[in-house]
């Protein structure tokens, strides 16, 4: 009889312990489920709540879209807090949103945000041109002005916050001298949705985050070649505009790297036009004499930083150039046909330039 009592007590003790453990595990799971999935994410996630959707339906939808961790926790959280009914319609969330942010939005409060348009960052465009695209949405989102955009690009506090998030990408840009915009070259070419509540900092962060995600595949190669990310992005921004396709970009990258190897100025027209802050089909001697660190006719090396937003194709070209052994130091492009001729000596270059003279070829 005494033994039976001991067994019963032992079983009850184990059961009680299991209940405590299960309870603690459940509490930990709920606590984690209530936290944002990714505090650093600013990618917009479109969610459309249909008419007549129940709380369970909405929770399932949010879980499927990757906005929350658990539909079940969402359902009980809403019930426990006596949250009023939700509004049907389109919403935009991010993985950084808290439960309270999500519930406020679903109730149609200040946190709700719907897409009002998109910004296309084209390959090879300068920051000023990105600002022009953003400004087209200013009537639908007052924060989207060119002035706000350029101001944010010059905001050191904002830039330093991005360095903390993306150190591999931006550390070398942080130490660059004489740059016009520290984030020039880091606004990856893509289309970005803008909501009615999107801030300028959030939009720019999306662009930088996209660049970092693309560059992850190349960080080890960049380090192995003893380049800095700033140098790669700078050279890629020149190659982007000087070349017309993947083949020509890789070959032009080889020309530029050959020049850099012998400390010969790159003499890029793209760089001079950036220094002038304008576009020209032909440059004058006065243009190529402009006093600017971006003038790579006067200054050897890479220059302060990128001249536009390079594509992944241009980045690959810099990291895997072709024909370097051919020792090309010059090239000239036919602006009408896109044909490019390469030369080892200035004499050969002058012959090639003469071939394209009628079509306004530009020598390098």
Structure commentary:
- The strands form 3 sheets. The chain has a 3-stranded antiparallel β-sheet, with helices on both faces. The protein has a two-stranded antiparallel sheet with strand order 1-2.
- With 364 residues, the protein is mostly helical.
- The mean pLDDT is 87.
- The chain has 3 domains: 33-113, Dna Ligase, domain 1 (2-Layer Sandwich); 115-215, no CATH class; 219-363, no CATH class.
- It is elongated, with a radius of gyration of 28 Å.
- A hairpin with a 6-residue loop joins strand 5 (330-333) and strand 6 (340-343).
- The protein has helices at residues 2-33, 55-64, 71-80, 99-106, 127-135, 146-153, 156-165, 167-174, 200-215, 219-224, 229-242, 246-261, 269-276, 312-319, 346-356, and strands spanning 45-49, 89-93, 115-120, 191-195, 330-333, 340-343, 362-363.
Which key features would you list for this structure?
two-stranded antiparallel sheet; 9% strand; 3-stranded antiparallel sheet; elongated; 48% helix; mainly alpha; 364 residues; single chain; Dna Ligase, domain 1
Shape: elongated
The order of strands across the largest sheet is 6-5-7
Q: Which structural class fits the helix and strand makeup? A: mainly alpha
Supply the number of structural domains: 3
Helices and strands, in N-to-C order? HEHHEHEHHHHEHHHHHHEEHE
Taking the alpha carbons of the first and last residues, their distance comes to: 102 Å
Main pleated-sheet profile: 3 strands, antiparallel
Task: Set out the fold topology.
Elements: H1 2-33, E1 45-49, H2 55-64, H3 71-80, E2 89-93, H4 99-106, E3 115-120, H5 127-135, H6 146-153, H7 156-165, H8 167-174, E4 191-195, H9 200-215, H10 219-224, H11 229-242, H12 246-261, H13 269-276, H14 312-319, E5 330-333, E6 340-343, H15 346-356, E7 362-363
Antiparallel strand pairs: 1-2, 3-4, 5-6, 5-7
């Amino acid at each position: 009889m005494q033994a039976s009592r001991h067994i019963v007590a032992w079983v009850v003790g184990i059961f009680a312990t299991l209940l405590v453990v299960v309870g603690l595990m459940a509490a930990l799971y709920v606590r984690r489920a209530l936290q944002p999935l990714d505090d650093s994410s600013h990618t917009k996630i479109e969610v459309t709540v249909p008419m007549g959707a129940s709380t369970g339906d909405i929770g399932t939808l949010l879980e499927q879209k990757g906005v929350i961790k658990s539909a079940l926790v969402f359902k009980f959280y809403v019930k426990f807090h006596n949250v009023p009914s939700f509004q049907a319609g389109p919403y935009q969330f991010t993985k950084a949103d808290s439960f309270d942010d999500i519930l406020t939005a679903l109730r149609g409060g200040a946190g709700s945000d719907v897409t009002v348009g998109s910004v296309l960052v084209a390959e090879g465009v300068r920051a000023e041109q990105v600002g022009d695209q953003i400004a087209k949405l200013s009537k639908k989102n007052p924060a989207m002005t060119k002035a706000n955009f350029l101001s944010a690009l010059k905001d050191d506090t904002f830039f330093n916050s991005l360095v903390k998030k993306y150190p591999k990408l931006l550390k070398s840009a942080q130490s660059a001298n004489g740059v016009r915009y520290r984030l020039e070259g880091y606004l990856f070419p893509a289309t970005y949705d803008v909501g009615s509540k999107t801030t300028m900092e959030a939009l720019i962060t999306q662009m930088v985050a996209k660049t970092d995600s693309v560059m992850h595949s190349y960080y080890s190669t960049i380090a192995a070649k003893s380049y800095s990310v700033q140098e790669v992005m700078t050279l890629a921004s020149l190659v982007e505009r000087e070349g017309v396709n993947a083949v020509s970009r890789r070959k032009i990258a080889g020309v530029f790297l050959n020049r850099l190897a012998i400390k010969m100025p790159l003499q890029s027209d793209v760089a001079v036009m950036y220094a002038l802050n304008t576009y020209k089909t032909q440059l004058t001697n006065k243009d190529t004499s402009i006093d600017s660190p971006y003038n790579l006719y006067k200054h050897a090396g890479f220059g302060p930083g990128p001249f536009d937003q390079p594509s992944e194709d241009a980045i690959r070209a810099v990291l895997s150039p072709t024909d370097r052994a051919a020792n090309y130091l010059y090239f000239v492009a036919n602006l009408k046909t896109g044909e490019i001729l390469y030369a080892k000596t200035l004499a050969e270059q002058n012959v090639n330039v003469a071939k394209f003279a009628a079509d306004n070829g530009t020598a390098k």
